[in-house]
Amino acid sequence: VQLQASGGGLVQPGGSLRLSCAASGTIFSINVMGWYRQALGKQRELVASITSGGVTNYADSVKGRFTISRDKTKNTVYLQMSSLNPEDTAVYLCAADVFDRVVITKHWGRGTLVTVSS
To answer: How confident is the model over 37-58, as pLDDT tens digits?
Structure first.
């Protein structure tokens, strides 16, 4: 299974970005898909997640600013980020809990860099 993330880049404070992450490979179903981030010198943290049933969960620091969604037909998860601030600067990684009819395995994408700076 491969996860391909895209959409990162440089944005000014107060701006918006939309990240996408598409899963491909041997996939029977995907339970939870999520976005994590890791800033320089900090631990990786969960930003947002969404279950196959559409239940979402957000880190307190992004509530009201970020929105996670997914297209189950495309095995793709999105992260719409608004009102970005410099503290949001990090490498954003997507993850998916994939069921291949035998086991559920957590797969990670390679990450996409988001830089918020004027």
So the answer is: 999 999 999 999 999 999 999 9
Cβ neighbours for 54, distance < 8 A, ≥ 6 positions apart: 70
Burial of 103 (C-beta count, 10 Å sphere; 0-12/13-18/19+) = exposed
Quickly count: other Cβ atoms within 10 Å of residue 24's Cβ.
Answer: 12
43, two tokens: 């631990």
Q: Are 51 and 32 in contact (CB under 8 A)?
A: yes
Q: For residue 106, give both structure tokens.
A: 């957590």
Question: What are the tokens at 15?
Answer: 């701006």
Contact status, residue 7 vs residue 77, Cβ threshold 8 Å: no
CA dist 13 and 111 (Å) reads: 21
